[in-house]
Write a structure and sequence with these properties.
- This protein has about 180 residues and is of the alpha+beta class.
- The chain contains three helices and five strands, in the order αααβββββ.
- Helix 2 packs antiparallel against helix 3.
- The chain is elongated, with a radius of gyration of 30 Å.
- The protein starts with a helix and ends in a 5-residue tail after the last strand.
Length: about 180
């Protein structure tokens, strides 16, 4: 009987003791903090992927339009430019180039080149919270207009700087040395 009472008093004392409670709280909070930092890092990498896809689509559309202006086929040049910027077709990445564009206000315009870059990023930590991965999608359209009128022509070089404002709608700024 005396042994049972001693055991009960030790058990109650262990439950009432606060020793180690702080270390348990710190361990729990540290795990939560590390988890949140990991999710924030993963979200940041998704944002970088989206910005990189936008850059690749913009450059690919511009390169395709420039190639079309020179008489070359726009689609292979656009696909090659997207691949050189880290977005080649295959796996989790889709790159589509159209001349003329398949959608949007320039659909059917033979002078325009459309590039759509899509990538599904890998989910590492977010898989515990999201059922499907987010998709980074960017679309760009570029139009080559070599026949626009020149409204500013500089004989040697044309330099714009400082706080100048130039409004040149539907016209081209050109210089005699080939640069603007």
């Amino acid at each position: 009987m005396r042994a049972a009472r001693a055991l009960r008093s030790r058990g109650a004392g262990a439950l009432a003791s606060r020793r180690g409670a702080t270390s348990l709280l710190v361990a729990t909070m540290a795990g939560t903090l590390v988890g949140m930092a990991a999710l924030a890092t993963e979200g940041g990498s998704w944002y970088v992927t989206l910005r990189s896809a936008a850059t690749a689509a913009d450059l690919a559309a511009l390169a395709g339009a420039a190639a079309r202006d020179r008489g070359a086929s726009a689609v292979p040049v656009a696909l090659d430019t997207a691949a050189r910027n880290g977005f080649s077709h295959g796996g989790a990445t889709t790159v589509q180039a159209y001349n003329p564009p398949a959608s949007g206000p320039q659909a059917g315009n033979a002078m325009a080149v459309e590039v759509v870059v899509t990538r599904t990023p890998v989910m590492i930590f977010a898989g515990a919270f999201l059922s499907t991965a987010p998709v980074a999608r960017s679309r760009a359209v570029a139009i080559s207009r070599a026949d626009d009128e020149v409204c500013v022509l500089a004989l040697n070089s044309l330099e714009l700087g400082g706080n100048s404002t130039t409004q040149a709608q539907r016209c081209v700024l050109a210089s005699g040395d080939g640069g603007v």
